[in-house]
Amino acid sequence: MEKSARRGGKVLWFAVWGAMALVAGVNTLAPFWILSGRYGFVLGVLLAGVASVQLVVGASFLRPKDFVLAVVVLLLFGVGLVGQRVYVTPSGIDFGAYYVAGKVVAEKPPGRLYFNAVSADGRFILWDAAPGWQETTSQFGVPKALTFIYPPFFAVLMKPLTYFPYGVAFALWNVFALLATITSIWMSTNLGGIRLEVNLVLILLVGLFSFSPFFQELEVGQVSSVLLFLCTSGVWLYSRRSEGSSAFCFALATMIKITPLVVVPLFVIHRRWKWLAGYGCWMVWLTGFSVWQAGWPAHEQFLHSVMPSLSCGITTIGNVSLMTFVQELFLGYVPMDWHLSPMAPLACIASKLVSFAVFGLLVVRFYLYRREQNLVRDLTLILLLSLSIAPITWMHHYVVALLPFLYLWGRAEGGRRDYLFVASVLAVGSNLTGLAIPFFRDLPVAQLVLAGIIPCLTVALVWFRVGERPGVAAIFS
């Protein structure tokens, strides 16, 4: 009788979590379908209530780590029921920029890729109102798009999608993002030594579709899942001694967005000369291909105009980088929209110095605690750090954090509780701080405290993880 009751409880648990995965998935992938409306919200609340009772009563078939993961994911699911209904940007606004850029470089000869509108102090303006960009956007039938700020090579990669109409291309892009993310999760769990069972797969699916950066990424059509896939592949291939393939993945990621370059110091510290040589050769080859396809003027403009303008970041509530937080401290509040008026002369310099200092100190810490067996872990940590020290880090960029989060969770063992890790996952996965800041318009101190939580938690998590000895980390006993 007792055995039958246990089996029934397990079947009910699978049914509830399967239904939660369906609701969260529909909210993320088909936000205008019936389950994403009020009916989906009510159903989600009911499912969350039943799942909570199941966890309180006890799910004896779950391992302690899986139990803690289920609690964290359940909290993300509850917040996601509300967060997935907060649309703060036009759908596809980022993908629109990629699509237009692909159309521009497909022209013979390639058209003008960058329209560098800047504010009074030289910072980049990501508006489609930049001179020339709005006309280019309308020309290719894109409803709304930010100005393109990525390296020219990324525009070259987008050319195949431009053979499809914009709506079809956007749908294909998001399908690829979903597949790339799921594949990356598999590789991350593999790196973390996690054995995937049905119950864990259900928890991870609910967690993915409730992870705020992921459903924000699909909403705007961002490139973060591609970067997650390339960086995770680079780490996974290196762990299997395929250094040439690993170097190619990181080189490709660097050509799409500069920040994966942060892994290079770790390979220098560990004297992985073969990997470094491969990375250098791939960078030269990819750069040559990019110049051939997009033309030298686009590369020259990116190096001499776009990068200097972007190096100071953009001061706004949506940018969660450490540099932006320092600039907000100078302002004394968190701008609800893009702060375009000139800032204090020292704000940009100070924010850069803080970012460089944090990166430099952590590279030294990586060096002092270097161990060959820790290189894979350190690669995941420095990729997490890159999100904090970059000039511009929107919340959807934190999709890349799925790699270090899953790796650290998989490798956690021992007897102490790791509240810093759990707090970091909850802060990033829920984006509660970003949702709460607008409610404190008359309390700038509260705004600043909330704005500092994610970048500071990220740096703190990396700092303490680097100095840890193998086998002492734990999420819960």
Keywords:
mainly alpha; 66% helix
Walk me through this protein's architecture.
Helix content is about 65%, strand content about 0%. Among the domains are: about 1-85 and about 195-210, no CATH class; about 310-475, no CATH class. It has helices at about 1-30, 40-55, 65-85, 95-105, 135-140, 150-155, 165-190, 200-210, 210-220, 225-240, 245-255, 265-270, 275-295, 295-310, 320-330, 345-370, 375-390, 400-410, 420-430, 430-435, 445-465. It is built from 21 helices and no strands. Helix 1 packs antiparallel against helix 2, helix 7 packs parallel to helix 18 (about 400-410) and helix 16 packs antiparallel against helix 17 (about 375-390). The two termini are about 30 Å apart. Residues about 470-475 have low confidence and may be disordered. With about 475 residues, the chain is mostly helical.
Please render the helix and strand layout as text.
Elements: H1 2-29, H2 38-57, H3 64-83, H4 93-106, H5 133-139, H6 152-157, H7 166-191, H8 198-210, H9 212-220, H10 224-239, H11 243-256, H12 264-269, H13 273-294, H14 296-310, H15 322-331, H16 345-368, H17 375-389, H18 402-411, H19 419-430, H20 432-436, H21 444-466
Helix pairs in contact: 1-2, 1-8, 2-3, 3-8, 3-19, 7-10, 7-18, 10-11, 10-17, 11-13, 15-16, 15-21, 16-17, 16-21, 17-18, 17-21, 19-21
